């Protein structure tokens, strides 16, 4: 029995910390923000959660993907309860926090288009490398100011590069609040699905909508079970997008029910570039 953390950073991880701060401990993951003489890093420790075994493998899976993408500063390995990774810390603020002052649940939201463009560019860059992210959500987009740049973090569920077999696991959907209808349907019917770029575009639409308005893309009760949430996504339509102008119309397009009807990330970037000009 592993317990529920938070877990201390194991001694054998090759990092000499000068100071450290616990970022979070939940759902099979302890994350530390660590200062070292070589710079600031994030250390992620995975362990089996109450409901899932795969969370123990997630840091190694992400570490392997980041290395495959060329991040030589990333290391990963195993510890007593699962796997770990060390990756560079990305300075900035996540999209949900960044748009707090713009958020309006009632009226017409009018968040900065340049932030949305930075997020779309980060996703387009990943898609251009042949990957689908599989877990796009506001907390996974870290924005840094002047010029606005976004980094898409948490690649643990991404698809498109080879992952060492011992650290691989099937995709069983993501945070349902950002899940596309076709992913929800597959997870309900088969228990697993395959992340796609089209589903990422949907998730980015749901992400921008959530950050701008505080609303989930589809309405369901707060206490609905995961299957109930997924059924609402499959059987329903998304909420009215109360976001201003071209950005609102674009989010509407990104949330199209059928994957083929959605714009690509490059089309999303182009529309946002025009709106930002
Ligand atoms: N490289 C990084 N740079 C900056 N912040 C990071 C980094 N990695 C993780 N974080 C912070 O830690 C949080 C959790 O990280 P991440 O989503 O990668 O872990 P997780 O185990 O998937 O957690 P969750 O269960 O919340 O999804 C992020 O939302 C972010 O605030
Ligand atoms: Mg995460």
Count of discrete structural domains: 2
Tell me the name of the CATH homologous superfamily of the largest domain: Transferase(Phosphotransferase) domain 1
Percent of residues in beta strands: 15-25%
Bound molecules: adenosine-5'-triphosphate, magnesium ion
Record field, number of beta strands? 8
Biggest sheet strand line-up: 1-2-3-5-4
Residue stretches low in confidence (pLDDT < 50, at least 5 long) are none
The CA-CA distance between the termini, in Å, is 56 Å
CATH class categorisation of the largest domain: Mainly Alpha
Radius of gyration: 19 Å
Average pLDDT for all residues: 95
What structural class do the secondary elements suggest? Answer: alpha+beta
CATH topology of the largest domain: Transferase(Phosphotransferase), domain 1
Characterize the overall form.
Answer: globular
The CATH architecture name of the largest domain reads Orthogonal Bundle
Strand count, sense and barrel status of the largest sheet are: 5 strands, antiparallel
Count of individual helical segments: 8
């Amino acid at each position: 029995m592993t317990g529920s953390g938070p877990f201390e950073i194991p001694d054998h991880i090759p990092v000499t910390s000068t100071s450290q701060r616990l970022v979070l401990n939940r759902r099979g993951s302890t994350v530390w923000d660590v200062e070292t003489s070589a710079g600031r890093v994030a250390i992620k420790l995975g362990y089996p959660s109450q409901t899932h075994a795969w969370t123990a493998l997630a840091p190694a899976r992400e570490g392997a993907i980041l290395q495959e993408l060329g991040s030589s500063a990333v290391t990963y390995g195993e510890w007593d309860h699962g796997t770990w990774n060390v990756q560079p810390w990305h300075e900035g603020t996540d999209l949900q926090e960044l748009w707090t002052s713009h958020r309006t649940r009632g009226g017409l939201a009018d968040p900065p288009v340049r932030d949305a463009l930075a997020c779309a560019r980060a996703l387009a860059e990943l898609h251009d490398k042949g990957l689908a992210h599989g877990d796009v959500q506001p907390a996974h987009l870290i924005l840094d100011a002047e010029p606005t740049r976004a980094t898409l973090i948490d690649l643990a569920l991404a698809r498109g590069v080879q992952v060492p077999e011992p650290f691989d696991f099937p995709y069983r959907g993501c945070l349902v609040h950002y899940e596309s209808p076709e992913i929800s349907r597959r997870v309900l019917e088969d228990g697993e699905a395959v992340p796609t770029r089209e589903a990422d575009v949907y998730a980015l639409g749901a992400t921008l909508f959530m950050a701008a308005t505080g609303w989930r893309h589809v309405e369901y009760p707060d206490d609905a079970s995961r299957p109930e949430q997924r059924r609402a996504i499959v059987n329903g339509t998304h909420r009215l997008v109360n976001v201003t102008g071209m950005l609102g119309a674009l989010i509407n397009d990104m949330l199209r029910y059928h994957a083929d009807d959605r714009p690509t990330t490059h089309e999303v970037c182009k529309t946002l570039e025009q709106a930002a000009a």
